[in-house]
Amino acid sequence: HRRPDQTLDLRGVKPAHEGSFVAGKAQQTAKFEAVTARFVCLEATSSLAGDAFTTCAELQLLDSNGKNLPRSGWKIVYADSEELSGDDGSASNVLDGAKDSFWHTQWQDASPTHPHQLVIDLGSEQTITGVRMLPRQNSDHGRIGTFRLYASREAFPGL
What we know:
Oligomer: single chain
Number of strands: 8
């Protein structure tokens, strides 16, 4: 989900929301003022364990009624890092509906540090009022601590 030497450039892009998640396996929700966007970037700026990794089992976005938006037509268009050698840490796992699979940033051959970014193309413009995240279920390793959520009608610079 990243071309060689591709880097997302979020300088000058204002986050729709900045927040943090708490420890534990429970699904967590962050709500914010409504934004309209086709592209959404989750940028993990730290992990709860203080390690260099980011993991996430499932990611949902909320509509104007606080309900999950349908994910049909969504696709991952960028991930700064994915572990594809040591296990299946593909960024696509956040959209597969399985709580036991997860996105995991690279750890086997390198350990890039935060921030870690994941960009989803929603396929069309949507009104978004929140994000719902299910942390990795089998370990606290890489669970997101602080994050920024960016939302844009156009592709982010660098995509």
